[in-house]
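Sequence in, structure out. Go.
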Amino acid sequence: MPLRDDFPPSGSDYLGGESDGYEYRTVFGGSRIESTYEMVRQFLAEEGYEDVPLPKDADELRLFRLPTRNKQILMFEDNGYVHNPIKILFPQDRRKRSTLILCIYNEADPQHLLKFHRILERVEAAKSE
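Output:
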C-alpha cells in the first residue's frame, strides 16, 4: 500500500527513510542533481503523490534554493521546494550538490496544516517569550 494511504507509524523505517508518525524523511543521492530529482519524482508517484505539483525539472527545482549561506536563516526557512504535503529540500552542506532531502507529511493528522506551515512552532515560540 502506498505511503499516502498508509503513513508509517512513529519509529518505523520505511524504504530507508524515518518516520515520527507525522513526518517521513528520506535522502536521495545520485551522480547528478538531475538523476536525483528524477528518483524523487518517481518515488512520489509510486507512493501516491502523483497529483502534487512539482518543478518540471532539476533546473526549475534549483530556482527554489535559498541564495543565503546564513545558517540562522536556514533554521527558519525551508531551503527548497514546498507544496503541501511535501518538501524537497537542499542539504545545508553545499558540497552535497546532488543530494536532496524529501519530507512527506501525514495529511491525516488533525493539525496537519498548522504543523506543515510551522504555525504551531511560531505560537509556541511566542508563548515562551
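Check: Residues 113 and 119 are 8 Å apart (CA to CA). The longest helix spans residues 33-46.
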